[in-house]
Each structure stands twice: as C-alpha cells, then as structure tokens.
Amino acid sequence: MVDIATRVWNHKWKIDPIVRSLIDTDFYKLLMCQSVFRNKRDTQVKFSLINRSTDIKLAELIDEGELREQLDYIRSLSLTRGESTWLRGNTFYGKRQMFRSDFMEWFEQLRLPDYHLEKRDGQYELTFEGSWPEVMMWEIPALAVLMELRSRAVLRDMGRFELQVLYARGMTKLWEKIERLRQVDGLRIADFGTRRRHSFLWQDWCVQAMTEGLGEKFVGTSNCLIAKNRDLEAIGTNAHELPMVYAALAEDDAELAQSPYQVLADWHEEHEGNLRIILPDTFGTKGFLKQAPDWLAGWTGIRIDSGEPAAGAEAAIDWWHSRGEDPTQKMVIFSDGLDVDKIEDLHQQFAGRVRPSFGWGTLLTNDFRGLTPGDALSPFSLVCKAVAADGKATVKLSDNPNKAMGPTSEIERYKRVFDVGQQQAMDVVV
C-alpha cells in the first residue's frame, strides 16, 4: 500500500501529474458521452468552472503555471491499449460490450480540446468550448486538478512528521465511519467521490478501505480507473448535464417542457436494468414527476441529489403508488452531501419501503475537516457545468434554489414551464 504522506513529502509536487488517464473519470461520464455521441455529437457546448465557495480564492492559492502544466498534460493523454480492452470487453451492469464499436473507435482517437484560463477577482475562470462529446470529458479531470492543487498548496509547507500525523488522522477518521457503517444491515454504498477528492492516491486508499471494511456492502466506485485497477464494479448512470443541454436546445416552451423526458427516451433505447435510474431534480422534482410519462414509472429507480432527501424519497414513493408501481421493488439512490449520520438516518427511514442505496462523495474522499489549522483542508463546493449549448444559455433549477444557475430571465421562464413553486433553500455543503 502506498505511503501517501511520504509520497507528498518526497515529491514536493514537481509536475507529478494529477490525472494520468482519460478513464480517471466517473463512469456516468462515459455512458453519457456515448449517448451524446449517438444523438447530439455536433452540438457545440461551453463548460465553465464555478466556485460556489467564493471565500476560497483559488487564484491566490494555486499557481497559474502549475495549473496550466496539469491541464496541458491532460491534453496529451489518450486511451492505453489496456484501458480500451477493459472498456470493450468488460461486463458493466451485467451487459457485455456496453460501449459500441463506433464510439470506442472515436474515443481511442480522442485528445481533449484546448481550454481558456484567466484570473478574475481572486478566482480562476476556466472554460472549455467545442463539440459536446469532446468538451464534456473535461469536467471531471478539471475538477480533480483544481481540488488536488488546492490540497497541495495547503500541504506544501508541512513537515514530514506533520504530514504523517495528518494522514494517520484522516485514515482513522474514515475507518471510524466505516466501523459505524458496518452495523447498518442491508447497506448498499458506492464511492462517488472523484470530482472533489483530496487527491487520486487518497481516493484510491479510501476505496481500498471501504472494500476491506464493508465487504459486500460496498458495491463499487464511480471512478473507472480505480474500478479497473481494483477489479471493482464501475458505478454510475446519468447526470444533470443531459437535460440542461437538451432543454437549452428547445425551440419553444412546449419542447422545453418535454426535453427532460426526451433525454430519458434516448437513454431508454440504450440501457436497461439498474442503468434506468431517473434523476428528476434538474428543473424540480415535483413538476418532473407530475408530468412524467407512465413508462418512466417502470424504470428501476430514482436518484435524489438535491433538496431535503427524505422529502424527495417520499415524493418518489407517492408517485410510484399513483402509477401502480410497488415502491419496495424500486431503488432510491441518495447522493447529496452525505456523511455517516445522514446515511444511517436515511437507511433506517426507508429500508423496507424502497431499496435504498448511497453514492458517497466528497465526505468520503475529502474529509479532513478539523485536522489542519484554520480548517485549511475543509472541502468546498466546486463544480464544472455546461453553461451554453449552440449559443443558448443553460439553466439548472434544482430542488435547492442555492444550486440554481443560469440567467435570471431564463430561470424565471423555466420555473413557469416546469411549474416550480415555493422552494426550501438549503446550505450547499459540497
């Protein structure tokens, strides 16, 4: 097992690439990329880095030269033969050849497009523009680079023994969480922590600890490279990016109202079983479920990713009942701001009523809260979102208005079209 503290001390971080593989990304990105490649490959999309934690001045913490060095290295990456073989030949979600030959031939030739970087008011403005299948692959590595460079900046002046103690405390903190989760009967939990991890080595350690500590309760990781290297299940379905872009491309309000369902109709053609998971909160869960076509009720489950999670699960249960479905056979994946207390509470509340599952993200792979002076390693909320498609602004409403994004006039239009009423604002933890 890698001695992370010694690696940190010895490297002093001269280049040491943060992202060393195009599959050091979330599995859902590859699934979505194939869907986009099939249905919308010529759409021109712009992605932008958004730091919701505005008090953390990334441009003052992270050297621009180091950041460019890391981003330029990512642009040099391509799939290795072993990675291509794994994607082409492995079984994912019970299906062989999940990735079609035409998509794989394209992916094997892919080099990520250029980026635009500048400083403004203590933050980095980092954007990516181009054809949707190409630029969407920047999201996860860009976030991983910014998060790890921030970690490196904090750790740079620490002594060797200070680093050893820091990581020992971090490991102990995680293991204590694992010991609590061991006691949860019927638990199903996966690592969703790639995008805002402390570092790649730390995420890999966390996954190994979960594998040993939780056994069959740990069902896999969203990180494709770690899944490949550790012989684990690659976990993930779809994300807000798809309905955001489809909606931006809509020609009128009627087409806009149908856009989230068109996303899932396209998905329905490609996937089955546990990949048929609804993500309803992009433009508000209540309106989504109210207008959803009956065929969606037959899908395997739903992911709750914003708003009050118990309320979201209750809404899903009521919806399934109203459509003649048995909620006890449905999967509910909780994935927003989870830590052990919330996982325990939600599992206790919904076990037996649905099939609860948990995608544990930032507070699995980046929880150093309380372990450094001034809490300098405390996780923060950094995202990279599609902000425009074919020149038209995208919008995300979310079930938590603090996560909403887009031009004010378009936000109001979307609220009207998607029948979004009063919303409860909640703190954005990560």
Automatic annotation (TrEMBL):
One of its GO terms (cellular component) is cytosol. It is an enzyme of class 6 (ligase). Residues 23-146 form the Nicotinate phosphoribosyltransferase N-terminal domain. Belongs to the NAPRTase family. Keywords: Glycosyltransferase, Ligase, Phosphoprotein, Pyridine nucleotide biosynthesis, Transferase. GO terms for molecular function: glycosyltransferase activity; nicotinate phosphoribosyltransferase activity. Residues 188-421 form the Nicotinate/nicotinamide phosphoribosyltransferase domain. One of its GO terms (biological process) is NAD+ biosynthetic process via the salvage pathway. This is Nicotinate phosphoribosyltransferase. It comes from the Bacteria. The keyword Glycosyltransferase applies.
